[in-house]
Amino acid sequence: MANKIKVQVFTDFDGTLSLDDTGLLLIDDHRSLGPKRRRELEEAVMENRIKYKDALQEMWENVHISWEEAWNEYLDDCKIDPGFPSFNDYCQQNQFPVTILSSGLYPLLEEIMFNFLGEKAKKIKIVANHAEIKNRTWKIIWRDDSIYGNDKSKTIIEAREKEKEDTIFIFCGDGISDISAARHADILFARKGRDLETYCKRENIPFISFDTFAEIEQVVRDLVCGKYKIDKSNNIY
Prior knowledge:
Order of helices and strands: EHHHHHEHEEHEHEHEH
Strand order of the largest sheet: 4-3-2-1-5-6-7
GO biological process, one term: alditol phosphate metabolic process
Number of strands: 7
Radius of gyration: 18 Å
Strand content: 15-25%
Number of helices: 10
Mean pLDDT: 92
GO molecular function: ribitol-5-phosphatase activity; sn-glycerol 1-phosphatase activity; sn-glycerol 3-phosphatase activity; sorbitol-6-phosphatase activity
Structural class: alpha/beta
Low-confidence stretches: none
InterPro entries: HAD-like_hydrolase_phosphatase (IPR050849), HAD-like_sf (IPR036412), HAD_hydro_PyrdxlP_Pase-like (IPR006384), HAD_sf (IPR023214)
Distance between the termini: 23 Å
Largest sheet: 7 strands, mixed
Helix content: 25-40%
CATH superfamily of the domain at 6-19 and 80-225: HAD superfamily/HAD-like
Shape: globular
Protein name: 2,3-diketo-5-methylthio-1-phosphopentane phosphatase
Organism: Rhizopus delemar
């Protein structure tokens, strides 16, 4: 089909693709920063009192769990959104690239995704920060010098420059690390009840709230088959 709609999917990982926020599991641990200070930092970012990168730096500098403890106590039990495997299969079948954009740490995401999807995970590109992990010290290595450390909008903009104008760019997120990408998607999915949804309502950014990737898959299927269209304001009708 020559006129088939082209789609590119970008998704946050922690709290969006993964039901658990893998970073916060380690940051909130009693040996690490803890939830009280972590939430204070998140609120400061939402209120533009500090940069997201500075907040995340403090969080990871105060993680004091070994790599082995992280996996044995938390990460091996992480779960993904139950609708994602089906959605990913649909995207792969239709040659719609899926990219994970994360403020998390690449070594964690790579292993977790393989646990989730096995060999299928190799077809999903991961754009994240890197890290040096020694004993109980975690050092985040930023992907770029932006205020986010990994500005997710840059990856979307770069991909858009290489694609035809009619390609539909989708972004799925849940939190404050997704704010930079919010204005650069043709369709923005924000997980219900999370910070990204709050931000979009406050800033009048069009979005679709979701509980599971099964809902996202249905919207994409409807777009591809022509049931829905997108206008110049990125509204679906």
